[in-house]
Amino acid sequence: MSAESGLSTFRDAGGLWENYPVQQVASHEGWEKDPVLVNNFYNMLRKKLVDAQPNDGHKLVAKLEEKYEVTVVTQNVDNLHERAGSSHVIHLHGELMKVCSSRDPYNPHFIKELTPGDCEVKADEKADDNSLLRPFIVFFGESVPMMEPAAEAARQADIFIIIGTSLNVYPAAGLINYVPADASIYVIDPKPVRTSGYRQVKQILKGGSEGMKEFMNHELLNNTILFNQLQNGESR
Which is the catalytic residue, given 28, 93, 109, 218? Predict the structure, then answer.
């Protein structure tokens, strides 16, 4: 979804992210080999993020909170969902505007949140445990600590909307398997997404913003049960 806001992803990029090999800038091996290059890469991404704005897709996802209890589970590392107004966001792959200890990445005492006005990390800057500060990003090959909270959110879903993913990146792609059998599932993506072997899924072949507009204006309101819930102000 964030590609519509001008932020590059490495999906469909032939293994490149902003013209860098993904393994060079998003793996533990890449960090160990050249932490200065990796640090500079994420400094560059942060500067782009500060200038980016949430798009209509982000805003419409946030708007769902007017009537529903919404949990956003994202593989993106930017904060555009939060800036659009979403209040409960689970970041599977980390958060670009945070840095952490390179020795103990998930120790909350050593996680530092950066600000738009001060988002550049010096190459030799250290955490409070005297290790180098590293991006608070789940590198390739590392575990995904937020997967269990995301799976629990999926288990509670009445409506499960998948936006802008090919369902090929695991473990995130496996979240669909946790969704209750009676929940409605929508996939919004301009390219057909293979969902064979699973129950019926409604596909909206559009980008995130246009797909969310269709979902809000047609699919959601045309469902009698959901329409009544919206009219009654119910939250599920």
Answer: 93
